[in-house]
Amino acid sequence: MDNTFFAPAEKEEINKIKERNKELSDSDYINFILNAVPELAAIINKDRQIIFSNDSLLNFLGIIDKEGVLGLRPGEAVNCINADLNKGGCGTSENCKYCGAVNAILISQDTMVAVTKECRITTKKDGAHEYLDLKVTSSPFKFNDNYYSILSVDDISDYKRRKILEKIFFHDVINLAGGLRGFVELLKDTTVPDEMIKYTNVVDKISQELLDEIVSQRTLTFAEHNDLAVDMTAFSSLEALKESAEYIGQHAIARNKKILVNHNALDITINNDSTLLKRVIINMIKNALEAVGNNSTVILNSYLENDDVVFSVNNEGFIPRDIQLQIFQRSFSTKGMNRGLGTYSIKLLTERYLKGKANFETSIQNGTTFFVKIPIQ
Predict the structure, then answer these.
(1) What is residue 339's predicted lDDT score, i.e. its pLDDT?
(2) Where are the chain's structural domains?
(3) Which residue, 76, 99, 222, 322, could crosslink 72 as a Cys pair with Cβ 3.0–4.6 Å?
(4) Measured between alpha carbons, how far is 240 from 274 in angstroms, rounded to an integer?
(5) Apex CA 375: angle with CA 270 and CA 283, to 5°?
(6) Helix (H, G, I), strand (E, B) or coil at 251
(7) How far apart are CA 101 and CA 118, in angstroms?
(8) Contacts of residue 290, Cβ cutoff 8 Å, sequence gap at least 6
(9) What is the dihedral of CA 75, 77, 83, 89, to 10 degrees?
(10) CB neighbours of 88 closer than 8 A, spacing ≥ 6?
(11) Phi and psi at residue 236, to the nearest 5°
């Protein structure tokens, strides 16, 4: 028996699966019902393997031959990045503990009632990562003395995206705009030169934050829709690091905290998009600052590793294991519901547009370090 960190690893033989598929396919009402629903739908056995799939699912997967999906588990069918982490397959890796699809299936099998859960999944397609937010329902039923589950999947990526916009973007923009208006009113009401200078400086900082919030959201939206243009230029790695530190150091998030650039940080000429890279570094710094309290220090560094320049951001905090396993997923956040674009945007921009790699390390002794590896050329 294969080892597993979560769900059972046993699988049914393909010949038995084909027999079950024929039984289900011969039933006109099963064919009719599953193909009548607009959602992606499949019938799975007790081992979570696909026995029957509707046309919507086959079209989504780009599979013409219906037998091409038989015996696969859901994560294996959509090419989930966690499906092959453990030899037991989909549902057996440590990461799978937090998969909504696997949990919905297991709970419904145990309770024999329909269970619905949200599922964040990262898939591999044409060498690139795709990010999905899904609502998965597992409904158990009995057919010819065998127990199965109907698995229906609804893509809620757009819905989750809108909720995040409402909770993060609109909330933050309204707050910034409100603060800006308040200081403009103060500026209008004063004739004292020192106060005018003070208020003008505050207005300048808030307006810069407001502009950055809008540009960040636009960049992420373009990136998700593959509409982001990359401007390749030669630039200094050290300057990119210092400019990012200086920029975020002016924001409220850096108040009572220190941002230091390692004195050994290397200065290397890179040919890439400096604006996008600085946005990635700024997001890493923001995440690091949010993770620590007052009087804490965030340390930035850059160094050479083979043919890549590594940009790293370290803070003294430690990320618990359950959170580690969900980092970089879209919509996941430790800051509450309907947040979670920081680490996701880091990985998206780095790997899809800068042609690099994003990752992190965390330990109680050394804190947490997020880093991106960017090719020199």
Answers:
(1) 42
(2) 14-155, 159-224, 233-375
(3) 76
(4) 7
(5) 80
(6) coil
(7) 7
(8) 253, 335
(9) 100
(10) 2, 3, 4, 9
(11) -90, 130
pLDDT tens digits, one per residue of 322-335: 999 988 887 666 65
Which tokens go with 72? 């696969």
Domain 233-375 architecture: 2-Layer Sandwich (3.30)
Backbone angles phi, psi at 200, to 5 degrees: -65, -40
3-state secondary structure 103-145: HHHHHHHHHCCCEEEEEEEEEEECCEEEEEEEEEEEEEEEECC
Confidence of residue 340 (pLDDT cuts 50, 70, 90): very low
Contact 259, 300 (CB under 8 A): yes
Instruction: Pick the more confident residue, 16 or 172.
Output: 16
How do residues 241-268 score in pLDDT, each as one tens digit? 999 999 888 888 899 999 999 999 999 9
- Cβ neighbours of 143 (radius 10 Å): 14
- CATH code for 14-155? 3.30.450.20
The answer to whether the 14-155 and 233-375 domains have the same CATH topology is no
Condensed to tens digits (0 to 9), the pLDDT of residues 23-66 reads 999 888 888 889 888 889 999 999 999 999 999 999 988 888 88
Sign of the Cα torsion 143, 149, 155, 160 reads positive
* Tokens representing residue 15 in the block: 């010949």
The predicted structure's pLDDT at residue 335:
57
Q: Please give the order of strands across the beta sheet that includes 357-363.
A: 258-261, 297-305, 308-315, 367-375, 357-363
How far apart CA 139 and CA 43 sit, in angstroms, is 9
Judge whether residue 341 has pLDDT over 60. Answer: no
- Among residues 251, 182, 244, the alpha carbon closest in space to that of 210 is found at 251
- Work out the average pLDDT over 109-130: 91
